[in-house]
Description:
The complex is a heterodimer.
Chain A: H1 6-21, E1 33-39, H2 46-65, E2 74-80, H3 85-97, E3 103-105, H4 110-122, E4 127-129, E5 142-144, H5 149-163, E6 167-173, H6 176-191, E7 195-202, H7 210-219, E8 223-227, H8 231-242, E9 250-253, E10 272-276, H9 285-298, H10 306-325, H11 330-337, E11 341-344, E12 347-351, E13 358-368, E14 371-381
Parallel strand pairs in A: 1-2, 1-3, 3-4, 4-5, 6-7, 6-8, 8-9, 9-10
Antiparallel strand pairs in A: 10-13, 11-12, 12-13, 13-14
Chain B: H1 2-32, H2 39-55, H3 60-81, H4 90-112, E1 126-129, E2 132-135, H5 136-158, H6 160-170, H7 172-177, H8 182-204, H9 216-229, H10 235-254, H11 257-274
Antiparallel strand pairs in B: 1-2
Amino acid sequence: MRKQTRRQFLGTSAAATATFAFPMPAILAAENITIGAVQPFSGGLELFGNQAKLGLELAMKEINDAGGIMGSKVEIKYEDNKTDPKTSVERTTSLIRRDNVLAISGPITSSARDAMTPMINRMKTPLLYATNYEGGACSRYLFGFNTVPNQELEKLVPAMFKNAGNSFYMFGADYVWPQKMFEAAEGLVTSMGGTVSGKEFTPFGVKEFAPVIRRIKDSGAKVLLFALPGADSITFIKQAEDFGLFEDVTVGFLGFAETYLGAFGEGKGQNMWVTVPFVASSKDAATVDFVSRIQAAAGKDVPISHYVMTHYNSLIAVKGALEKAGKIDRESLIDGMEGLTIKTPTGDTVIGAKDHHVTMNMFLAKTEGTGLATVEALGQLAPKAGCA
Amino acid sequence: MAVFATLILDASNYVLILVLVALGLAIVFGLMNVINMAHGEFLMLGAYTVLVVENVGGSYWLGLILAPVVVGLIGLLIEEVVISRIYHRFLDTILATWGISLLLKQAIVLGFGPASFSVSTPLDTSVVLFGAPYPVLRLFIMAVSLVVVVFTFWLFFKTRFGLAARGVIANRDMASCLGINTRLLDRLTFSYGAALAGLAGAVLAPLISIDPQMGLGFLVPAFLSILVGGLGTITGPIIGAGLVGATDNLTATLFSPVWAQLVVFVAAIIVIRLFPRGLVYSRGREL
């Protein structure tokens, strides 16, 4: 190691003192805007973390290529939360304290989000949450850029009535999101005069679904509302297919993403109905363009789900909000985002001034061949975020 | 009657799946005293072997034959490099094999990505059993499990290899004095345990999602089977798997999967409390 001479030491300390002595203007054109991203890049949900990153990267590149935000370049600092709430909090803390980020993007799971929320509130740093969830996360510092239960269910349940039948069976993983989803769905089904012939939950990591499949079959239900995320859902669909469940039951798949496609195997997992904020196979010009931009960056084979778009949108919203507010700091970002309308690949999206959740275009679609096919564009659906 | 029969059918299906998974673990854990936390990942490697064989154009059946060979060889390598150095440090085997499990998992993430895959379903038909269609694939899995159990018993009780292996377990020093190559037997036994996991993974591959995390869902009930059944024998874990599997499946059928998990764990705690050494345990020398 090179030894530091006294002269050099004096020189550097003088420079350092000078830096502190002269106050910087509040907005420094040359300074970068740093956004922290706390996403799962290991530990089970890396698939979703990677989808989020695709969207964030594209938004960052496009913003910077167009001259940044009021002259400042955007940079994203990624942190791996290992799909773990405790790690999420640690990473969030260090991003805010050490890296002084303007806002945090992420995470995916509700448990990680709930763990991070107190820190976000205490440090008065906005959280840009772009995953579909159960609703009810309401704070000045939290913005939801994806759907809450009513946006997914309001049109899906009637569509299942029309196309499959009026008796519903609900099956999902045993945690808060499926439970809230089914609560909302039950209300919808009974208000339309349908019946709920069964509702059950399963722990994570179960590998044998034969008893559940038999029960669904015996219930005589025509529709299966299905809210089992991740690899477990693939295991279930495969086994249900072997037992011939889908000969008389049609699936309404909640929390669907294009990342599932291809994992079901050839000719499997057909005719499953979903409502999503983005369908990659759409023929709409703006969507086609968005898909080609992602593919240019990440290759032809990568699946592009709504997570890519919602995370992209969240960064576009940051740009819109800061430009609207005219200055770059956390509170201005929040003020700017409230009531903001942003242009997204699927049309205009409005951020609620009070509830901080988004009104956006939704699509009814179903799995067909190796992809997702749009059945109907549902137009703008407002969120019932539960922030009374 | 038909309801009762399907109940038995589903339960025995799950029991036999569990036996298939637990057997390799039982041989390594019960006979060699190595708690192999990487057993689930050996199973995963078996499933990925089938996936690779299918991707290069081979059939599922070729994958099924290759999987135990490939995983057995990987097991042999791991035994030589890591396990052979820690036989006398019981607790360290947990740490070492857990490390191996993380290593294998991340290697798969690097090689194949974190996404789920599936392989084609062989025997993609069903037969009507007790008034309801039943997938032929599941019958095949049950058959494989039975064959493997019979073969393992034959191997350990009717062959010279088995006699020597049981001799080493009963009294390692004495066996060594009598001219038995104990190192060779350790290698072969561990490798056989790994190969069984690979076979289980390949057999189960068409039934489940193939992903880097797939091993864990089987490892927990398999360990439970061994704890309930007892260490040091081959019969113990099979009885354990029978009890754990049947309890799980019947509770899931009669109540719900959430209750099933709860009931299985409570029952296991009670059994372990009442029979601390398991339901079947070896009194010294017998296997």
